[in-house]
Amino acid sequence: MPIDAPDYTTWVQTVEVIASSPTPLLASTETPISETEGKVTTTSSDYQTLATWTISAGKIGVLYGVELYAVPFSAAHFRLTINGAIQWQNVEFPTGLNMIFSDARLPAAAVVLVEGKSNDGSSVKLWGHIEGKEVG
Amino acid sequence: MLYSYDLTIPANTLASAPVKVDMPVGPGILHKLEVEFPPGCNKAVLVSIRRGLHQVYPTNPDGALKANAYTISTAEYYSVMEAPHQLEAYGWSPGTTYPHVITIRMGILPTEVLEPGREALTFLNRLRLLMFGK
After folding, report:
1. Residues of B in contact with A6 (CB under 8 A)
2. Cβ–Cβ below 8 Å for B42 and A8
C-alpha cells in the first residue's frame, strides 16, 4: 500500500461493492438438462438404467431434482447414485417420488444415475427422470 | 523581495541521491521562509535547505523538514549579504509511489528595511550596542 498519494489528494476512499443479488448469467452459458429413458419394462432383478446424466467437460452441473415412478410400486426397487456415491438402493416406494436437491453443484464428468429393477421377478414398469442444468 | 522555487521530487528518491534545486536570491536578510508540502506528501517527503555545504534549515544537521498539507512558515534573520547569494533545496522521498512538488518561498529584504534605525546610529552607539547590548 502506498505511503503517499498524488499531490493535492487530501484523502483516498476505497469502496468495495459486493453485489447483493446474483449476477444473471448469459443465456448462452446455461444448458437445461432433462434426462430419462422413458418407460422401462422389466422382470429382471438386475438394476436397469432409468435416467442418467453425465456433466459435460468444462461445465458445472446444477442438480434440481430426481423423479421416480413405477407400476406397480410394490414390485419395484430403486437405486440412486450421484457422482459415484450410492445415495440409497433396494428401496421400495409406495408412490411416485420427487426428490429436490436445491441446486446442488456437481463437477464435470460427475454422473447422476437413476436405476430400477423388479424385486420379485414379476413384470414392472419403471420411469425415472433427472432435471438440472449445465453452467459454464 | 519574495522568491519562490519549486522542488520536484520523483517517486522513491533515495536519501543517498536527493534531487536539488538552486535558489538564487538577491543580497539581503532572509527574514521569512516558507516550505509548502501539498496534501499527499504524508510526511514521506523530506526537504533540507543548504547554503553550500552548510545546512541552514532545519538547524539541526541530522533533521529534515516534512509535513502533509501544511506550509512550514518561520520568521528568520539569516544574512545572505555576502556571496554566494544562493541557497539550495534538497529533497528525497524513499518508499513513495508518486512524485511531489515542494514549493519554497523566501522573503529577502535589505538590512536598512528590516532595521530602519540602524543607519542613524553613530559608530560609538553601534560599538556600545555590540559590546553591552543596550
Report:
1. 40, 98
2. no
Of A3, A6, A10, which is closest to B69 when you measure between CB atoms?
A10
Q: What is the pLDDT along chain B (134 residues), one digit of tens a residue?
A: 899 999 999 999 999 999 999 999 999 999 999 999 999 999 999 999 999 999 999 999 999 999 999 999 999 999 999 999 999 999 999 999 999 999 999 999 988 787 776 666 677 777 777 788 76
Are A124 and A44 spatial neighbours (Cβ–Cβ below 8 Å)?
A: no
Contact status of A10 with chain B (Cβ, < 8 Å): yes
Instruction: Write down the pTM of the prediction.
Output: 0.51
Across the interface, do B44 and A3 touch by the CB < 8 Å criterion?
Answer: yes
Is ipTM beyond 0.95?
no
Contacts of residue B67 in chain A, CB cutoff 8 Å?
none
Burial class (CB in 10 A: 0-12, 13-18, 19+), A24: exposed
